[in-house]
């Protein structure tokens, strides 16, 4: 019973961290002038297709540290860049809104 409670607690903590990472990406994206719906769609696509560690680093670097997306992606390994490439089509599907002027 004790192990079950600890496992459930650990899953709850991991879930909260993941949600925070998703929200950090959405917040950074909306700060760039995109619609909340578009940013949520992009963050969800990233979370679904990127390795969990890469998604976490993306949220940290882009969402929290506010680093440029392009410079972050070019700093990644080829394998990690390919993961980002798998999300590009989804990003267009999310119907990116034109930036606010």
Give the low-pLDDT segments. 1-18
Q: Helix fraction?
A: over 70%
Task: Calculate the terminal CA-CA distance, rounded to whole Å.
Answer: 57 Å
Rg estimate, integer Å: 15 Å
Strand content: under 5%
According to DSSP, the number of beta strands is 0
- The chain-level structural class is mainly alpha
Count of discrete alpha- or pi-helical segments spanning 4 or more residues: 5
Q: Please give the largest β-sheet.
A: none
Layout of strands and helices, then pairs:
Elements lengths: L1 H30 L4 H14 L2 H13 L4 H6 L3 H16 L8
Helix pairs in contact: 1-2, 1-3, 2-5
Protein name: Lipoprotein
Brief digest:
The chain has 101 residues and is an all-alpha fold. The chain is built from 5 helices and no strands.
Question: What does this protein look like?
Answer:
- By secondary structure, the chain is an all-alpha fold.
- It has one domain (21-93).
- Helix content is 78%, strand content 0%.
- The chain has five helices and no strands.
- The chain has helices at residues 2-31, 36-49, 52-64, 69-74, 78-93.
- Helix 1 (2-31) packs across helix 2 (36-49) and helix 1 (2-31) crosses helix 3 (52-64).
- It is globular, with a radius of gyration of 15 Å.
- The termini are far apart.
- The relative contact order is 0.14.
- Mean pLDDT is 79; it is low at 1-18.
- It comes from Hyphomonas chukchiensis.
- This is Lipoprotein.
């Amino acid at each position: 019973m004790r192990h079950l409670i600890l496992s459930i607690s650990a899953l709850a903590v991991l879930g909260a961290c993941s949600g925070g990472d998703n929200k950090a990406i959405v917040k950074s994206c909306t700060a760039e002038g995109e619609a909340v719906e578009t940013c949520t769609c992009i963050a969800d696509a990233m979370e679904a297709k990127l390795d969990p560690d890469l998604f976490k680093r993306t949220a940290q670097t882009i969402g929290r540290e506010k680093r440029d997306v392009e410079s972050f992606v070019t700093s990644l390994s080829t394998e990690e860049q390919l993961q980002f490439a798998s999300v590009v089509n989804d990003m267009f599907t999310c119907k990116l809104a034109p930036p606010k002027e």
